[in-house]
Amino acid sequence: MSARLFGALLLVATAAPLAAPTVTPAPATGRKTAPSCSTLLSGFEEKIEQDYAGYRLEVKGERRRAYAAMADDLARQAASATGDACFFVLKRFVDWFHDPHLFVFQSTQLDSAESGRRARAARHVALTERQARSYFTERGDRLDPIEGIWHDGQGLRLAVVPDSAAPGRFMGIVLTPDMAPWKTGTVRATIERRGAGRYRVDLFGRNFALRHLAATIHKQVVLELAPGMWGKEFPALATRGLVDPGDAHRPTLVRDGSTVIVSVPSHDPRFAPVVDSLVSANGAALRSADRLIVDLRGNEGGSSWTTNSLLPFIRSRSERPSRYDGDTLVMLSSPDQIAYVLRGGFGPDTSAFARSLIRRLEASPGDFVRFSVDDDSSPADTVFPGSDRVGLITDGGTASAGEVLVLKALRSTRARVFGRPTAGALDYPSVNIVRVHPDESRWLLGYPTLAASIRLPKNGMRGKGIEPDVRIPVEGLWSTIEDVERRLGGGR
């Protein structure tokens, strides 16, 4: 990947659900009736075909025929879909593209009357924390991995137990509420197992807005939701500092003999000061470590500059070749894209960069224009003394900004990447969220505004992810760390 492309990614690689999005406004209408599912599906199709570079670059030939067949099939489903059933029709449509940055955004806005109605209708279960802990202890290794006490890092604690009303499913029961009117014993989530470590979670927010989420357990004690992240509190593993006990999002640094292990579950920019503080406080240890391991399993993305202070311990002065070397970013011109830049999607709209980009987009409607930046926001050539045995651990949850760090490790001669292929979210980075209909505010379209190359899907990662140097099992918490330590070699 070229330095210019890296520079742009450092500025714009953002995981879809992290920041509160700015929604492209739609013209107001006097219509009060919610649009039908067929109307919403047509709106999603129109927006994707107009705004999404992946459609323009990749839906061709046989893939276009497959797309048309898929769209026709979902149109038939949409004709009879009402209520939440429509969400799953829309989700199947965007999931067809296998792009983590293309998604149905579920708004959690509810008026107070509807929140109150849902609060009164909420299901309650007579389960105390003592009873839950007794059940978990008695079941021992017969528990499903999802069973246990989880916390969301913002005050909410839940006991996940089998749902007596729905055999084969689970429910998340509030043990410690994060906000009134939630009460202890209220069912906050219903959970269905979808595979090894994978679940569908129907989760109520603080205001009782319902979201349908996909969830995956990483390293036994972290449940990544999209969006959100829970940490497992009980039955407890000896995490020994690999997971922050108060907030599973939060980066940690621990020493294991002569190894320094930095766990980065999130590139949310609010944790950049935490990473900076860890690196500053442990600078001597990082310089003298025999091995450095950076655990990116389940990393939800965010902003790639979040780990800039760690990067000089990963980068090397010489570089390895990478299959991802190549083109610069491009942007497809459309009214939504121009509006995104005008709203400050890439910095102040009065900046020279934004003004130049807007002029080029306005001059080329429906075409691709080159996206460029004047400077790189990373410490581009900085390399700190430290271990020549650096290992990064990845899995299918390592996404977006986390993948930028993986690409840099793949260029370093002192780093190796271990684990499983990543999420594959960097072909199309930087997310915008738009309405698909002026009278629909619950389900919106999230789509990436940029393309990493005009030549995609050539050398792309969508649907495949970034391949690690060495594939290894990644499910264990400490066992995976110890495996990487052995593979890196060196002393204790």
Q: In words, what does this structure look like?
A:
There is one protein chain. The protein has 492 residues and is of the alpha+beta class. Among the domains are: 16-105 and 433-444, no CATH class; 112-208, no CATH class; 330-370, no CATH class. 28% of the residues lie in helices and 21% in strands. It has helices at residues 3-12, 37-51, 53-58, 61-78, 85-95, 112-121, 129-139, 272-281, 283-288, 335-342, 352-363, 401-411, 478-488; strands at residues 23-24, 103-106, 148-151, 157-162, 169-176, 187-195, 198-204, 210-218, 222-225, 229-234, 252-256, 259-263, 291-295, 330-332, 368-370, 390-394, 415-419, 431-434, 443-448, 450-451, 470-471. Strands 3-4-5-6-7-8-9-10 form an eight-stranded antiparallel β-barrel. Strand 4 (157-162) and strand 5 (169-176) form a beta hairpin. Helix 2 runs antiparallel to helix 4 (61-78), helix 2 (37-51) runs parallel beside helix 5 and helix 4 packs antiparallel against helix 5. The longest helix has 18 residues, at 61-78. The relative contact order is 0.17. Mean pLDDT is 91; it is low at 1-22 and 25-31.
